[in-house]
Design a protein that fits this description.
Helix content is about 30%, strand content about 20%. By secondary structure, it is an alpha+beta fold.
Length: about 260
């Protein structure tokens, strides 16, 4: 602000000079809040700042990338309103993306230990109405890279953080038909006491997902439950009523349709 009015600061002229002299094509200005001395909650002020960036891009034929802080609290992947401050900054962007840390639900699905989930982030477009499922999102993993710049006085040298592409494990990838059929054999045989396995979320001793995990040990609980749901949906497994001799009452249990087994 200058004399009560919005005005260009010295940074704008400095950027124009540097871009022209160095023939820059892409300018990254990080973070957005440090580019200006305005009220970031004012749409009028943020529109003024955004228009300067847009004019910079048009006049000098460049792309401008402006990372922005998110609001406090729980973040949702692909949420266009995740950015801090006024919505004018969001609306000015041609392409908008969110970076979101892996949630506990996603960590359980992918079998990532709780203490390691902070290392994984997903990238989603926030210019679409619905973010893709976590298994289809673009994921990255934070890693440390040693610079090998150690000296006698500083033998360990420096390590900097960067990211590498990471792909979530696919539920069915790498599982052989033999593994799947072994799990189905055990489900069809039932429990030693005569009870049948169950896919119910409340099932404990009769839960079928541990049987799947026994034969597919690198799959998480949630992935094993997904396999069971797929089998039920495809008719490989059916849910039938039987007389439970242990509980002495009719109950529902899982049976295998042999004609639909994987081959």
């Amino acid at each position: 602000m200058k004399d009560g009015s919005m005005a260009r600061g010295p940074l704008e002229a400095m950027l124009r000079q540097a871009i022209t002299e160095r023939q820059i094509d892409l300018v990254g200005l990080d973070p957005f809040v440090k580019l200006h001395g305005m009220d970031e909650n004012s749409n009028t002020a943020m529109n003024f700042v955004s228009e300067l960036l847009v004019k910079l891009a048009i006049d000098l034929n460049i792309a401008v990338d402006v990372p922005h802080h998110t609001k406090k609290g729980l973040q949702t992947a692909g949420d266009a309103d995740a950015g801090r401050g006024a919505s004018a900054a969001r609306d000015a962007g041609r392409l908008m993306y969110t970076l979101t840390r892996m949630s506990d639900h996603e960590g359980e699905t992918f079998g990532i230990p709780a203490e390691e989930r902070r290392l994984y982030v997903r990238l989603d477009s926030s210019k679409v109405n619905i973010a893709p499922p976590s298994g289809e999102a673009t994921w990255f993993k934070l890693i440390g890279v040693r610079l090998e710049n150690g000296t006698p006085d500083y033998p360990q040298g420096d390590e900097v953080q960067t990211v590498i592409p990471w792909h979530p494990p696919k539920t069915w990838d790498g599982i052989s038909a033999a593994q799947l059929n072994a799990a189905l054999d055990e489900i069809e045989a039932g429990m030693p006491n005569g009870q049948r396995f169950s896919d119910a979320s409340s099932a404990t001793s009769r839960a079928a997902w541990p049987v799947v995990q026994k034969h597919c040990p690198d799959r998480s609980e949630r992935q094993c439950r997904d396999i069971l749901r797929t089998w039920i949906r495809n008719g490989v497994i059916t849910i039938e009523e039987y007389d439970d001799a242990v509980e002495r009452k009719p109950r529902k249990g899982l049976r295998v349709c042999h004609g639909k087994r994987p081959s």
